[in-house]
Amino acid sequence: MKLRMILLSLATGAVLCGQQSSGGALTARQVIERIQAHVGMPWHKETVDTFKAGDPDTRVTGIATTMMATYDVLVRSAAAGKNLIITHEPTFYSHLDRTEAFEKEHDPVWEEKERFIKEHNLVVWRFHDHWHLMKPDGIMFGVVRALEWQKFQSATDPSVFVVPEMTVAQLAEQMKRRLGIHVLRFVANPDMKITKVGLAPGASGPERHRKLLQRDDVEVLAIGEVPEWETIEYVTDAVSEGKKKALILLGHIPSEQPGMEYCAEWLKTFVSEVPVEFVATREPFLLAK
Ligand SMILES: [Zn+2]
Questions:
Q1: Which H/E stretch holds residue 64?
Q2: Is there a contact between 226 and 203 (Cβ–Cβ < 8 Å)?
Q3: pLDDT tens-digit map of 123-138
Q4: Residue 25 pLDDT grade (very low, low, confident, very high; cuts 50, 70, 90)
């Protein structure tokens, strides 16, 4: 690996020298090749970590890392001179970012986003699978650091924590504050005292949630999101049955966002030619009065 990295940096250096003489900079494709060389594993053939919009050979003026390439994130990134957007989640409203239906329907929301990307010469690339497969998982690392829970994390299972005793309501309040969440909901007897916490950021699915909730070392599980008739109904029943279980819904974006803030730090360790900045994705929800 080390030799490969040295060879790569030599190759990259040579390319850069050639381009500097013609006044150029890194292309988006070259940035992604550099990421692929630094993830510490062979690049998977089956992956959603691909270009989603824009021309990969575009010269990069700056890089924005973000949780979701929302229209708002694209506008703020372009205004800050960042034309390569590295997003953890989809750009076009589904896991595979397929756009055929929007094209056929002339969907006005999608069309305006497409137009903005073209007009501003933006390139969007998704960094999901490999960032999770890193050791440690890049998302989990950033989230646990933001929660200040490193010392409570199990050495054998990074999804499980033993925290100082508090009520579920207090734990929910702590997570809301430390992750900067506006709308946090929880399913629980709020006064139940807990120490054993499971953490499953994002949308890891009801089966994964249930497996964690079945464990004796998980009293309360904090997740990003799930349909309301799956894990939420399961925990609602567990609470009604008097079982010592609770669920905290952080929301998908805040549950993983610190991991993309960490991604910007990680990128800066091997991309120095252009500025790299974390652009926070805004939480979508408002609270009714
Ligand atoms: Zn994720």
A1: strand 63-68
A2: yes
A3: 999 999 999 999 999 9
A4: confident
Rounded Cα gap, residues 118 and 144, in angstroms: 37
Q: Tally Cβ neighbours within 10 Å of residue 154.
A: 12
Q: From CA 187, how far away is CA 285, in angstroms rounded? A: 18
Question: Taking all residues of the chain, what is their mean pLDDT, rounded to a whole number?
Answer: 93
Q: Which CATH number fits domain 2-135+257-278: 3.40.50.920, 3.50.50.60, 3.40.1390.30, 3.40.50.2000?
A: 3.40.1390.30
**Residue positions counted in the chain:** 289
Among 253, 213, 216, 256, which Cα is nearest to 233's?
213
How many angstroms separate the CA atoms of 260 and 139, rounded? 7
240: CA distance to ligand 1 center in Å? 31
Q: Ligand 1 centroid vs 138 CA: distance in angstroms?
A: 9
Give yes or no for a contact between 35 and 120, defined as CB atoms under 8 angstroms apart: no
Neighbouring residues of the ion ligand 1, judged by CB less than 5 Å = 202, 256
State in Å: Cα 179 to ligand 1 middle: 16
What confidence category does residue 122 fall into, taking pLDDT thresholds of 50, 70 and 90?
Answer: very high
Q: How far is the CA of 1 from the centre of ligand 1 (A)?
A: 26
Enter the pTM of the model. 0.90
CATH match for 140-250 among 2.40.50.140, 3.10.180.10, 3.40.1390.30, 3.30.1330.30: 3.40.1390.30
Distance 103 CA to ligand 1 centre (A): 27
Confidence grade of residue 24 (pLDDT, cut at 50, 70, 90):
low
Give the Cα separation of 176 and 164 in Å (integer). Answer: 17
Strands 84-89 and 123-126: parallel
